[in-house]
Amino acid sequence: MELYDIIFYFFAAMILVSGFVVVGSKNIVYSAYSLLFVLVGIAAFYILLGADFLGVVQLMVYVGGILILLLFGIMLTNKVKGVEIKSDSNFVIPSLITIAVFTAFLLFVITETNWLEITPEFVQTTVKSLGIELIQNYSLVFEILAVVLLIALIGAATLARNDNKEN
Amino acid sequence: MPHVGLTHFLVISSILFSLGLYAVIVRKNAILVLMGIELMLNSANINFVAFAHFGNLGLDGQMMALFVIVLAAAEAAIALAIVLNIYKTFLHINVDEVDKLKE
Amino acid sequence: MPTDSIMLTEFGKILIFMILSVVFVAIGLFAAKLIRPSRPTKEKSTIYECGEETVGSPYVKFNIRFYVVALIFIIFDVEVVLLFPWALAYKNFGVPGFLVGISFLIILVLGMAYEWRKGDLEWDRPRPNIPNLINDKAGFDK
Fold it and tell me: What is the ipTM of this complex?
């Protein structure tokens, strides 16, 4: 058992345990905080997989941005004095059965397939090669992403502002 | 115990995907549904990066994961704005009770 | 079989350091919790001298303005993330590589200009009611 394996199992356990808390917790705030651990664990996975820039991006965008946005959403959509912070579930049993079957099928396929696995090469850092790839092969996608972000910014600000004006 | 390889990462990501699916189907709160979607996107991202790493396929997998993260940020911003408007109209965000397009 | 035990990038070594620091602190806190005596009395568990008694629930409803600011933040956060690899690599491509990034920036600056024009970046503060000291002083002298 090497160091790599120990780190992998540590973060795998962290991701799975906090993933179950995210899905199962009654309190939405607990779910959001467990999501933090899931996202940090996934960032560590990226680093273990040799994608160091993606790990940093995961920390910056997911942990620093999306999670905060979700927490704002929780804080904005709960009654001031009520105990509305709890949340219910429905169709638990049938969906549990369906998802269990689905997962079992997925795991069967994954473990039974003989994946073509090559001993990976570790490059030093991927930021510069990602940039070269971005300009060389994905420059159109890069510009389209700018347009998508512009649309998201204007659309979401418009939606949120309408709300603001009528209050 | 075998050396950690592609299969280990795929197993973790598929379990994570199932958890996200469960949250999307079962939970009533719209923000929890969003969290489920984020879990599913993240599990897909793990798959991209794992295949790119263990297949020596170059950086295309990482580029895809990067684009998915960017789109997830845009999606979360828009979705939360919509959720806030739903809250303003219905005073709750239980997705199974939001069944009117117009009052 | 790879004999190098650490198959990690440079950043992976930093990851190991981060894990070790977390584990170190956790072990310290846990051991202290095991060893130290715990005899809370009513006096001890009151809020310390300069603290205030808490009022109400921490789960308050925020002002929606915070959401708009967070939204603008996340979009430009993503923009910065995408500009990092571009900034490292555009020199290899000369002018076209530079133009790719600049047009990306220009498109996003349009969004910035829109926000600015629409007044989403303004933050109107609540104006505190300051008493008019000059008139009060006249009354005080009497």
Answer: 0.90
